[in-house]
Amino acid sequence: MSRSSGDRLFGRGGSTGRTETDPAGTGGGSTARAAVEPVAALVAVVAVAAALGLYVTAIDDATPEHERAVAETTLDRIEPAVTAGGVVVPTRLGGVPRLRYAATVEIRAGGETWRIGSGPGAPALDDPSASDRIDTARRTVTVRTAPGRNVRGTLRAAVRR
Questions:
Q1: pLDDT band at 117, cuts 50/70/90?
Q2: Residue of 72, 68, 151, 138 lying closest to 106 (CA atoms)
Q3: DSSP letter assigned to residue 22
Q4: What is the mean pLDDT of residues 7-11?
Q5: In the predicted model, is pLDDT for residue 12 greater than 60?
Q6: Torsions phi, psi of 31, nearest 5?
Q7: How far is CA 92 from CA 123, 136, 157, in A?
Q8: How far apart are CA 71 and CA 88, in angstroms?
């Protein structure tokens, strides 16, 4: 007698070849399946989420600021050029190296003002309508106003970004 194609695939009883002792149909493997306790899985998910949160925080802290403090940097560059013996000498403003950005640097002390600008695009220090495109910084310094006369003054910078 010939068998039909259905008998060849499923066997005589219509089963797929699996038995009660081998439900996976692996041909003699273990009947137990791998499983994870729900609490252990939850702890693993929380640990991965915490690690990702720490990673994102670290990356966010490591990214550079988009807005640079160019006025502070300008003061850091200018102050040593105009200082002699820890005292700012206003006449040294003329020997300041060329400024990279459109900037104005000013020294005020004893009712006098000394100012330099880097061209016609240099921003005004006391402009009430200064936009957010102008960065300003100031420092309190000791200024030599006359030979042997030192007073407290202010070194200020305004830089167009």
A1: confident
A2: 138
A3: B
A4: 50
A5: no
A6: -85, -10
A7: 21, 21, 16
A8: 18
